[in-house]
Amino acid sequence: MANSMPHIEKALGSLRLPVRGWLLAALGIGLLSDPVGRDRMVLSPALAAKKDAAKKETPDKQDEELKQKVKKLFEDGMVQYDLRRFDVAITLFEKAFETRPDPVFLYNIAQAHRMAGRPAEAAAFYRNFLRKAPDAPNAADVKGWIAQLDKEAGGKQANIVPPPVDPPVPYLEPKSKQSFLSRITVDGKSYFLTGVGHRSYMGFSVYGMGLYVDDSLARRAFPKLVAQAGGSELQQLRARDLAQSFVVLGEFGKAAVIRFSRKLSAKQIADSYRDLLKENLKDSAAPALRQSTQQFLALFNRDVATNDEMMISTSGDGLISVTTNSVRVDGPRDPTLCIDLWNMWLGGKPLSPDMKQTLVERIALLGQSTSAATSGGK
Questions:
Q1: pTM of the model
Q2: Which residue, 328, 342, 169, 165, is CA-closest to 253?
Q3: How far is CA 31 from the centre of its chain?
Q4: DSSP symbol at 322
Q5: C-alpha to C-alpha distance for 250 and 221, rounded to whole angstroms
Q6: Which residue, 152, 183, 209, sits at the end of a domain?
Q7: What is the pLDDT of residues 164-198, one digit of tens each?
């Protein structure tokens, strides 16, 4: 494979700063370098022009905060990448892309997938990167990697021009003003955004939430839901809470990504869920369920600030995890408790009826019979 360093030297011209340092200087946005130092990239000319234009203006406080947030996500992602914690790195780069939808982060994600040994996912993100940055200095190298990765993935896409597939895009929750990517990676798997919602308490905004399901397994199960509902239209899927029950009872991974609108202590969060799950803590509850619920509540051991993120996820076999600002803690493995958790938002007595509806607004898109389910589409 051709080394991409000549492209870097040509792009940098007389600039002789280290590659990673130069990228961080460019508004805190950068691309990965392989541990062996051969797969390097710089910002596209268009992005470099944006950087030069920004020098002519004094950025306001909001722009500066945004720049620092993107820079921090990049730096944290690089640390995780260098430690070969590729899934954590992918999550951080996805957040960076959500904050600033720049194609450079699609390249970062592709690099991490490739290093993690997931050729199909890596090829998909490389394709998304080239669609957004077709004139990238190392485009030829990226095309070479795609061909090689397609062969590793089974050769199904080798030498075939794939249909246009959009990369993950931010999806706004209007009340909380929080945005969520249309697809994220959880435990190395692609998760699809079924909808977003907003939680308030006594007139105060508490958090915005994006609800995700394991893309591949949920799509596989979706035709059964359509048959039960008699159609794939959202109105029919909502009938008798079929769409909500599909998520609650589906034997696939699920994740609630929560962005907080206000500062909360770990105790406040745990107490909130304790109240919602109080039936599980009564002496009359099954001892195993009571113990699992107590273990789940113990996962909330970190305070959160405004705009901090928490993800509550459950696997297909019932493992419950809580990730707060990229720090993950695994809890009990209890399928019954998983159902109780998702019923908090989607069950017969949800936290908010409006939220219950909006969390499945995109569920009909699971019926799309395209390669988007596995190749990086919305």
A1: 0.60
A2: 342
A3: 18
A4: E
A5: 8
A6: 152
A7: 445 789 999 999 999 999 999 999 899 999 999 99
Q: Return left, alpha or beta for 289; rule: phi > 0 is left, psi -120 to 50 is alpha, else beta.
A: alpha
We report the CATH number of the domain holding residue 211 as 3.50.70.10
Is 163 domain-assigned? no
Q: At what angle do helices 242-249 and 215-229 cross, to 10 degrees?
A: 140
Instruction: Look up the domain containing 127 and give its range.
Output: 5-152
Rounded-to-integer distance, Cα 24 and Cα 15, Å? 14
Positive or negative, the Cα torsion across 10, 13, 19, 25? negative
The helix or strand, by DSSP H or E, that contains position 211, with its residue range, turns out to be strand 204-214
Token couple for 139 = 């485009």
Q: pLDDT of 66-98, one tens digit each?
A: 888 888 999 999 999 888 888 889 989 988 888
Would you say 171 and 361 are in contact if contact means Cβ atoms under 8 Å apart? no
Say if residue 122 is in the same domain as residue 244: no
Instruction: Say how far apart CA 53 and CA 55 lie, in whole Å.
Output: 5
Q: Are 5 and 18 in contact (CB under 8 A)?
A: no
Same domain, 180 and 320: yes
Q: Are 171 and 210 in contact (CB under 8 A)?
A: yes
